[in-house]
Fold this protein.
Amino acid sequence: MEWDDLLREYLGEFGRFQKFTALLAILVGPTFGMSLVAMTFLAATPEHHCRVLGNSSSVGHRYQAEGYNFSVPLENIGGTWKPSSCLMFKESNSTTTPGNESTACTHGWEYDRTIYQSTIVTEYDLVCSTAWLKGLGQSSFMAGTSIGGVFFGTLSDRFGRRPTTVLCLLLHLALSIGASFTSDYVSFIVLRALDGAAANGLYFTAFVLGTFDSNM
Protein backbone atom coordinates (compact mmCIF):
# COMPACT_ATOMS: atom_id res chain seq x y z
CA MET A 1 0.00 0.00 0.00
CA GLU A 2 1.27 3.44 -0.93
CA TRP A 3 1.91 6.15 1.66
CA ASP A 4 -0.79 8.38 0.20
CA ASP A 5 -3.29 5.56 0.47
CA LEU A 6 -2.44 5.15 4.15
CA LEU A 7 -2.96 8.85 4.77
CA ARG A 8 -6.36 8.82 3.07
CA GLU A 9 -7.41 5.68 4.93
CA TYR A 10 -6.48 6.83 8.42
CA LEU A 11 -6.66 10.63 8.14
CA GLY A 12 -9.39 11.11 5.58
CA GLU A 13 -9.64 13.05 2.33
CA PHE A 14 -8.69 16.67 1.66
CA GLY A 15 -12.07 18.08 2.68
CA ARG A 16 -13.70 21.48 3.13
CA PHE A 17 -12.06 22.18 6.47
CA GLN A 18 -8.59 21.43 5.13
CA LYS A 19 -9.18 23.60 2.07
CA PHE A 20 -10.40 26.51 4.18
CA THR A 21 -7.44 26.21 6.55
CA ALA A 22 -4.96 26.03 3.67
CA LEU A 23 -6.51 29.12 2.09
CA LEU A 24 -6.20 31.13 5.30
CA ALA A 25 -2.59 29.99 5.67
CA ILE A 26 -1.82 31.08 2.11
CA LEU A 27 -3.20 34.57 2.82
CA VAL A 28 -0.59 35.01 5.56
CA GLY A 29 2.22 35.02 3.00
CA PRO A 30 1.48 38.41 1.38
CA THR A 31 1.25 40.15 4.76
CA PHE A 32 4.71 38.91 5.69
CA GLY A 33 6.06 39.83 2.27
CA MET A 34 4.69 43.37 2.45
CA SER A 35 6.22 43.87 5.90
CA LEU A 36 9.53 42.60 4.57
CA VAL A 37 9.73 45.12 1.71
CA ALA A 38 7.95 47.98 3.52
CA MET A 39 11.22 49.81 4.27
CA THR A 40 11.69 50.41 0.55
CA PHE A 41 8.90 52.98 0.87
CA LEU A 42 9.06 53.83 4.57
CA ALA A 43 12.74 54.78 4.28
CA ALA A 44 12.67 56.40 0.84
CA THR A 45 15.03 59.37 0.67
CA PRO A 46 13.70 62.27 -1.42
CA GLU A 47 15.92 65.01 -2.75
CA HIS A 48 16.83 67.49 -0.05
CA HIS A 49 18.96 70.48 0.79
CA CYS A 50 19.74 72.60 3.82
CA ARG A 51 16.90 74.71 5.13
CA VAL A 52 17.66 78.38 4.64
CA LEU A 53 16.02 80.88 6.95
CA GLY A 54 13.30 82.74 5.11
CA ASN A 55 12.72 79.95 2.60
CA SER A 56 9.15 78.65 2.83
CA SER A 57 9.55 75.60 0.60
CA SER A 58 8.60 73.29 3.45
CA VAL A 59 4.94 74.22 2.99
CA GLY A 60 4.91 73.26 -0.69
CA HIS A 61 5.56 70.14 -2.69
CA ARG A 62 8.56 71.34 -4.67
CA TYR A 63 11.72 73.27 -4.06
CA GLN A 64 11.67 77.01 -4.29
CA ALA A 65 14.76 78.48 -5.88
CA GLU A 66 14.48 81.71 -3.92
CA GLY A 67 16.43 81.82 -0.70
CA TYR A 68 18.99 79.10 -1.26
CA ASN A 69 20.56 79.72 -4.67
CA PHE A 70 23.28 81.76 -3.01
CA SER A 71 23.26 79.90 0.31
CA VAL A 72 23.92 76.32 -0.78
CA PRO A 73 27.21 75.41 -2.50
CA LEU A 74 27.36 73.29 -5.65
CA GLU A 75 28.80 69.78 -5.73
CA ASN A 76 30.04 67.75 -8.68
CA ILE A 77 27.89 64.62 -8.57
CA GLY A 78 28.54 62.19 -11.41
CA GLY A 79 29.91 64.95 -13.59
CA THR A 80 26.95 67.27 -12.96
CA TRP A 81 27.03 70.29 -10.71
CA LYS A 82 24.09 70.22 -8.31
CA PRO A 83 23.19 72.05 -5.11
CA SER A 84 24.66 70.24 -2.11
CA SER A 85 22.35 68.07 -0.06
CA CYS A 86 24.35 68.35 3.14
CA LEU A 87 26.24 71.65 3.07
CA MET A 88 25.44 75.34 3.21
CA PHE A 89 27.51 78.48 3.30
CA LYS A 90 28.25 79.90 6.71
CA GLU A 91 26.08 82.86 7.49
CA SER A 92 27.74 86.27 7.32
CA ASN A 93 26.80 89.64 8.69
CA SER A 94 25.51 90.64 5.28
CA THR A 95 21.87 89.88 4.58
CA THR A 96 22.48 89.37 0.86
CA THR A 97 25.93 87.83 0.62
CA PRO A 98 26.69 84.48 2.27
CA GLY A 99 30.05 83.51 3.62
CA ASN A 100 32.64 81.70 1.52
CA GLU A 101 33.07 78.76 3.88
CA SER A 102 30.65 75.86 3.89
CA THR A 103 29.29 74.06 6.91
CA ALA A 104 26.81 71.35 7.76
CA CYS A 105 23.12 72.22 7.74
CA THR A 106 22.36 74.23 10.87
CA HIS A 107 18.60 74.76 10.44
CA GLY A 108 17.54 71.30 9.29
CA TRP A 109 16.59 70.24 5.78
CA GLU A 110 13.98 70.88 3.13
CA TYR A 111 12.64 67.85 1.25
CA ASP A 112 11.11 67.43 -2.17
CA ARG A 113 7.64 66.09 -1.36
CA THR A 114 6.53 65.58 -4.95
CA ILE A 115 6.52 61.79 -4.61
CA TYR A 116 6.73 61.06 -0.89
CA GLN A 117 4.82 63.28 1.49
CA SER A 118 6.37 61.69 4.54
CA THR A 119 8.90 58.93 5.27
CA ILE A 120 11.01 58.11 8.30
CA VAL A 121 13.82 59.99 6.57
CA THR A 122 11.84 63.23 6.42
CA GLU A 123 10.28 62.70 9.86
CA TYR A 124 13.55 62.10 11.70
CA ASP A 125 16.02 63.81 9.33
CA LEU A 126 17.93 60.61 8.51
CA VAL A 127 20.19 62.22 5.94
CA CYS A 128 23.83 63.23 5.63
CA SER A 129 25.69 62.30 8.85
CA THR A 130 22.74 60.29 10.18
CA ALA A 131 21.87 58.52 6.92
CA TRP A 132 23.35 55.28 8.25
CA LEU A 133 20.53 55.09 10.81
CA LYS A 134 18.06 54.49 8.00
CA GLY A 135 19.25 50.92 7.58
CA LEU A 136 18.55 50.10 11.22
CA GLY A 137 14.84 49.91 10.45
CA GLN A 138 15.32 46.93 8.14
CA SER A 139 18.13 45.44 10.20
CA SER A 140 16.01 45.48 13.34
CA PHE A 141 13.14 43.84 11.44
CA MET A 142 15.40 41.04 10.20
CA ALA A 143 16.86 40.56 13.68
CA GLY A 144 13.32 40.26 14.98
CA THR A 145 12.48 37.59 12.40
CA SER A 146 15.43 35.50 13.57
CA ILE A 147 14.29 35.63 17.17
CA GLY A 148 10.61 35.24 16.30
CA GLY A 149 11.15 32.05 14.32
CA VAL A 150 12.74 30.36 17.34
CA PHE A 151 10.48 31.85 20.01
CA PHE A 152 7.11 31.36 18.35
CA GLY A 153 8.16 27.99 16.95
CA THR A 154 8.80 26.77 20.49
CA LEU A 155 5.59 28.42 21.67
CA SER A 156 3.53 26.69 18.99
CA ASP A 157 4.98 23.30 19.92
CA ARG A 158 3.88 23.86 23.51
CA PHE A 159 0.50 25.55 23.13
CA GLY A 160 -0.56 24.63 19.61
CA ARG A 161 -0.22 26.29 16.23
CA ARG A 162 -3.71 27.70 15.95
CA PRO A 163 -3.49 29.78 19.18
CA THR A 164 0.05 30.85 18.25
CA THR A 165 -1.02 31.87 14.76
CA VAL A 166 -3.87 34.00 16.13
CA LEU A 167 -1.54 35.57 18.71
CA CYS A 168 1.08 36.39 16.07
CA LEU A 169 -1.59 37.85 13.79
CA LEU A 170 -2.87 40.18 16.51
CA LEU A 171 0.65 41.22 17.48
CA HIS A 172 1.59 41.81 13.85
CA LEU A 173 -1.44 44.01 13.33
CA ALA A 174 -0.91 46.03 16.53
CA LEU A 175 2.83 46.50 16.06
CA SER A 176 2.54 47.47 12.39
CA ILE A 177 -0.01 50.16 13.21
CA GLY A 178 1.93 51.28 16.27
CA ALA A 179 5.11 51.79 14.24
CA SER A 180 3.22 54.28 12.06
CA PHE A 181 2.49 56.54 15.02
CA THR A 182 5.85 56.59 16.79
CA SER A 183 7.20 59.99 17.78
CA ASP A 184 10.90 59.02 17.81
CA TYR A 185 13.16 56.77 15.80
CA VAL A 186 14.18 54.53 18.70
CA SER A 187 10.56 53.55 19.27
CA PHE A 188 10.19 52.91 15.55
CA ILE A 189 13.07 50.44 15.29
CA VAL A 190 11.99 48.68 18.50
CA LEU A 191 8.48 48.18 17.15
CA ARG A 192 9.90 47.07 13.79
CA ALA A 193 11.99 44.43 15.56
CA LEU A 194 8.99 43.16 17.52
CA ASP A 195 6.89 43.23 14.37
CA GLY A 196 9.51 41.17 12.57
CA ALA A 197 9.33 38.55 15.30
CA ALA A 198 5.53 38.44 15.16
CA ALA A 199 5.42 38.38 11.34
CA ASN A 200 7.91 35.54 11.06
CA GLY A 201 6.15 33.60 13.80
CA LEU A 202 2.88 34.09 11.94
CA TYR A 203 4.38 32.92 8.66
CA PHE A 204 6.01 29.77 10.00
CA THR A 205 3.17 28.63 12.24
CA ALA A 206 0.59 29.23 9.50
CA PHE A 207 2.77 27.39 6.99
CA VAL A 208 3.12 24.34 9.24
CA LEU A 209 -0.56 24.50 10.15
CA GLY A 210 -1.62 24.65 6.50
CA THR A 211 0.77 21.86 5.50
CA PHE A 212 -0.41 19.59 8.30
CA ASP A 213 -4.11 20.17 7.69
CA SER A 214 -3.67 19.79 3.94
CA ASN A 215 -2.37 16.26 4.49
CA MET A 216 -5.31 15.26 6.67
